[in-house]
Amino acid sequence: MKILVVGAGAVGAVYGWHLHRAGHEVHFFVKAKFADTVSAGFTLHWLGHRATQRQDWNGVRVVTDTAAVARERWDQVWLTMSSDALRGELAAQLLAAVGTATLVCLQPDLEDADYVRGRVGAPEQVVQGLITLISYQSPLPGMDGPDGIAYYLPPLARTPFSGSLQRVADVVEALKAGGMSASAVANVATVAAGPTALMQPLIAALEVNQWRLATLPASDALRMGLAAAREALAVAQRTTGARTGRFRPLLRPWIWRLLLPLAVRLLPLPLERYLHYHFSKVGAQTRLMLATYIRLGRQHGQDTQALQNLRKAMPAL
């Protein structure tokens, strides 16, 4: 297949690499100022619990303008930019240029997939997915580490996809053939609704706590984040029909006194530095998602005061 990956950051590079390993012709859509850097290739580092494996990808194909995109016939276009970038003018031009390609939408906001469906020729072109990997530019600031893109694939986390059956099957098979676990599900929106509604307010709370994991469990920021997460879960359930009740036990602060130290010990990466680095870069997305929960909650007549309080407590970008 001929595949276009939009965005050559750490997430796009990892998906592109696995699609390339499966034998597909992978191109990256990037701004012209990044073309030489991306075309020179990527050095990736797969993070295992016992070892790190270096993976070199040379001679990467690059596209830098939407006119060039429109001249080609693409089988798949993978959207790996943030939710706020998805709503930009460049993304709008790109969506208008992709023809009948399958659009793989990986953004986390509740409204992202519908946003894309409304801007392509046919809604069935859109396959919705959920990012389950961790990836970042290495070394992280202030840390030692290999140069390149480091990534971790949680062993029990398959990347879920939903949409038109044949299009989903093609996406899943492409990733699996490249060595990444993936699966078809009935509806990614309902699969992702609960964990995303829990995580985003907690990320915001961590930012309010100045990215300090060690002090987060006893902080006012965590209590504020958990109150906001309770409201976000209710909004997500009302909006998508997802059953979010199983996440309610995680709304107790004492749970995080156990979970956070465990995560720090088990993950083969510096968790606090990663969270600070990555979610600082996508801070506009975090704020957009909180705004979505607040707006949808108000439309449904639901309480959003804790979400509003959390949003106000966040520092300006």
UniProtKB/TrEMBL annotation:
It holds the Pfam family ApbA. Residues 3-136 form the Ketopantoate reductase N-terminal domain. It comes from the Bacteria. This is Ketopantoate reductase. It comes from Sphingomonas alpina.
